[in-house]
UniProtKB/TrEMBL annotation:
L-tryptophan binds at D137. A motif ('HIGH' region) lies at residues 12-20. The keyword ATP-binding applies. This is Tryptophan--tRNA ligase. It holds the Pfam family tRNA-synt_1b. Catalyzes the attachment of tryptophan to tRNA(Trp). Its main location: cytoplasm. NCBIfam families: trpS. A motif ('KMSKS' region) lies at residues 199-203. It comes from the Bacteria. It comes from Halovulum dunhuangense. One of its GO terms (cellular component) is cytosol.
Length: 334
């Protein structure tokens, strides 16, 4: 029996999208309001698995992501907010997990295939073992719940497999909980505004495909007005959206931002042409998002304060993770 503890991380790879916000950060803030311990991490070690952006950009991206978390409502007093590289227990535990996880498990990871591309021989070994480090991120805190988007479901299963195998192999009973994914709400997979079959991502070359949390009100509204859709008006009910991924995506975004169900959005807007629905969505998005960018700029003006917050978070995180690592080593006979 473990206390209910939430852990999640986001990579500081420059800029957060509406997908990261609705699929992850907005949920982080909601969980903070409940009576659970919440730990949120800027996973900077993960961010160098594909490319290293250079020292200055790396540091700036970490601070920018911390600022984004706070601007979205994360309270560093009520949650622990820190960056991964400051707590060595993550990588120490990851080594143990690299020795628990099997090659066959890693070979099944679809994100590695996506990110490595055609020439997997050229991918870093870090990208390949990324899921073991992610398991360590979560299990170093014996976290029981992990809010993520759909795309992380497979990695969470990997972490559960590691926890179960570790507990069995090292006679550890239920030392590591099997972390539960929290994949809920209307926007667990926000799609590109240019292509309803691709997920919205900060790595998409087209800036029109995504809304960035740093976009100003005019940019947010323009991107929604220009979002790709089919020529038909919205159907009367949800069922009519099944074969219409772009329309479905805009309805889901509306629902998540308004904190209502997609059914409720259809009850209000069903039958409308996009010339009416898009402006309604643009107004809602501007209302809910544009203050985040403003708040981020304010926070970014004081980098020393962000570093102080992250340093304090790292101390509190280490106070939980180090005893877990000690016990892990003890179980292995180290
Ligand atoms: P990215 O996928 O943009 O590179 P990360 O891998 O750091 O970013 O993901 C951070 C969090 O945001 C994860 O919980 C992930 O599931 C979520 N997320 C990313 N993109 C989307 C999306 N398009 N829709 C919903 N959630 C998403
Ligand atoms: Na991630």
């Amino acid at each position: 029996t473990h206390t209910q503890r939430v852990f999640s991380g986001v990579q500081p790879t420059g800029g957060l999208t509406l997908g990261n916000y609705l699929g992850a950060v907005k949920r982080f803030v909601e969980l903070q309001e409940r009576d659970w311990e919440t730990i949120y991490c800027v996973v900077d070690l993960h961010a160098v698995t594909v490319t290293w952006p250079g020292r200055e950009k790396m540091a700036a991206a970490t601070r920018e992501l911390a600022a984004a978390f706070i601007a979205c409502g994360l309270d560093p007093k009520r949650s622990i907010l820190f960056n991964q590289s400051q707590v060595p227990a993550h990588t120490q535990l990851a080594w143990v997990f690299n020795c628990v996880a099997r090659l066959g498990w890693a070979n099944r990871m679809t994100q590695f295939k996506d990110k490595a591309g055609k020439n997997a021989e050229k991918a870093s070994i870090g990208l390949y073992t990324y899921p073991a480090l992610m398991a360590a991120d979560i299990l170093a805190y014996q976290a029981t719940h992990v809010p993520v988007g759909e795309d992380q479901k497979q990695h969470l299963e990997f972490a559960r497999d590691i926890a179960a195998k570790f507990n069995l192999d090292f006679d550890a009973l239920d030392f590591f909980p099997l972390p539960e994914p929290l994949i809920e709400g209307a926007a667990t997979r926000v799609m590109s505004l240019r292509d309803g079959t691709k997920k919205m991502s900060k790595s998409d070359p087209s800036d029109m495909s995504r809304i960035n949390l740093t976009d100003d009100a005019d940019t947010i509204a323009r991107k929604i007005r220009k979002a790709k859709t089919d020529p038909e008006p919205l159907p009367e009910t949800l069922e009519g959206l099944e074969e219409r991924p772009e329309a479905r995506n805009l309805v889901n975004i509306y629902a998540a931002l308004a904190e209502v169900t997609p059914g409720a959005v259809m009850a209000e807007h069903g039958g409308q042409p996009f010339s009416a629905f898009k402006p309604a969505l643009a107004d809602l998005a501007v209302e809910k998002l544009s203050h985040i960018g403003t708040k981020m700029s304010e926070l970014m003006a004081d980098p020393a304060e962000i570093d102080r917050i992250l340093g304090d978070g790292a101390d509190r995180a280490a106070a939980i993770a180090e005893p877990v690592l000690d016990k892990t080593y003890e179980l292995l006979g180290f």
